[in-house]
Amino acid sequence: xxxxxxxxxxxxxxxxxxxxxxxxxxxxxxxxxxxxxxxxxxxxxxxxxxxxxxxxxxxxxxxxxxxxxxxxxxxxxxxxxxxxxxxxxxxxxxxxxxxxxxxxxxxxxxxxxxxxxxxxxxxxxxxxxxxxxxxxxxxxxxxxxxxxxxxxxxxxxxxxxxxxxxxxxxxxxxxxxxxxxxxxxxxxxxxxxxxxxxxxxxxxxxxxxxxxxxxxxxxxxxxxxxxxxxxxxxxxxxxxxxxxxxxxxxxxxxxxxxxxxxxxxxxxxxxxxxxxxxxxxxxxxxxxxxxxxxxxxxxxxxxxxxxxxxxxxxxxxxxxxxxxxxxxxxxxxxxxxxxxxxxxxxxxxxxxxxxxxxxxxxxxxxxxxxxxxxxxxxxxxxxxxxxxxxxxxxxxxxxxxxxxxxxxxxxxxxxxxxxxxxxxxxxxxxxxxxxxxxxxxxxxxxxxxxxxxxxxxxxxxxxxxxxxxxxxxxxxxxxxxxxxxxxxxxxxxxxxxxxxxxxxxxxxxxxxxxxxxxxxxxxxxxxxxxxxxxxxxxxxxxxxxxxxxxxxxxxxxxxxxxxxxxxxxxxxxxxxxxxxxxxxxxxxxxxxxxxxxxxxxxxxxxxxxxxxxxxxxxxxxxxxxxxxxxxxxxxxxxxxxxxxxxxxxxxx
Length: 652
What we know:
Structural class: alpha+beta
Number of domains: 5
Number of strands: 37
Distance between the termini: 61 Å
Shape: globular
Strand order of the largest sheet: 2-3-1-4-5-9-6
Largest sheet: 7 strands, mixed
Helix content: 25-40%
CATH class of the largest domain: Alpha Beta
């Protein structure tokens, strides 16, 4: 049975070490590599060896008992969470590695939230229990309090005196099963009934209950051990082999999606496709859907990568994934057949201007960043020609450092980046509607849109109340496809629109003259006109944070947060430490970590993560600073185009 297993963790939790032991225990490698020795099987990029962190998601394929396991190693730093989320959509199961020395961190919470959003069965591995002072019970409670209390303890630590020795498996012995049964009884009525009535529970019933609860994401197994010493690793493999199930349908028509794009050393595009049902084979053709056309690519080769190496195969079956060279029209998130993929929930909050030597021209640099954006769409490179500037969106400053190294290594070009700035967004306050008409000579399309504000951080949704007898489904689908592009600029600062519901209420076409590009133009004009007719507001990104400091510094921290236009809950005290939790604008918080480090002499604990967008605290200042002239933006005009007597004219 094919099973795709992800491994995710915060930095230094031991994720890569665990994967090395899995590869070693399945006879995939002869010796387990180590991060500190730069010998990891999947962290083979020079950048990863240099920094000792996973930057790129990579794959390995192993056989274990009755399962074929496709292992995906995911990045551990929060700045590369977008790479993590793209990988998550491929998974049948994920192992979250938590260091017993660190417990649950803000990035652990991000990982958990993403897995829950995509409904991925999840296992926890409490690692590094051999570190003196670590406490399994404390970390277990940490998971309960911060992530989920629906935990099933599968392995537990055993100690000699006060030192960690080995583990015991609850499923393999009779002792410690009461706690397991109690936990199952909380979520399984059948187990509860027998448990309360002291009716013996058969092994098959116990196993069936665990399998059902884990695979429908109602309960989450907890394992423990020491990855570096290969303690507790096989127990995870045994559990995945026996309890994790998949429902791939090999006999159905092909469906699948693109979860990753890479360019090799020859700049050949590699499209990684996960097959959900059926199969694809060499010589098959794939039909892409784009705004203006439906290009078709032929599959000439299929590769299955194992680390840095690959083998060629003729077919990919349901549950498998591979890389296909030469699909030039593919993009991350593209679906084929009867397949749906959730949109990424992560949003970059910062952008930076690219700085480079005059010996390079803008076309060269832009081409490099187009390739990188193809691989990571959230970079969203933009060439602002009126300013002659190239901007990229980023998750954090570490990502900029990695980008600089990647470009030097892959493209032999030196670039730098200016200090990051916040990415603002715009939305509307009231319902609005407008018509977009596009009718140059021998072209015709008309779109009527109603746009309504929706709840904050809900993004953009589209619906249609226009009957297909009025506007055929083909053209309605074209309008839907264009909407995200038409919402790229608002009227206040030229920032992207969000938190709106767009309804197609009416439309017109010409059998003789309408082409798909006409509906693109009409949709752009309808969106712009509608936005101009109502009041817009500026939004800015916020971080949620947790700061723990000595009690005597808590007052200063709260003053700082207030000064930064942030908010916080009532502080909590634990002996000599105070923890402050709250939200703060990203624009005010960017430089605060270094200030906090200096203030506390390195004795503060700071966790922060993106929490969403909110009303901008200094919108008037930002609007004036950006100085966007919406009427002068010819690409996003609200003017409709009409035609009379063979001549076109513009109407405001």
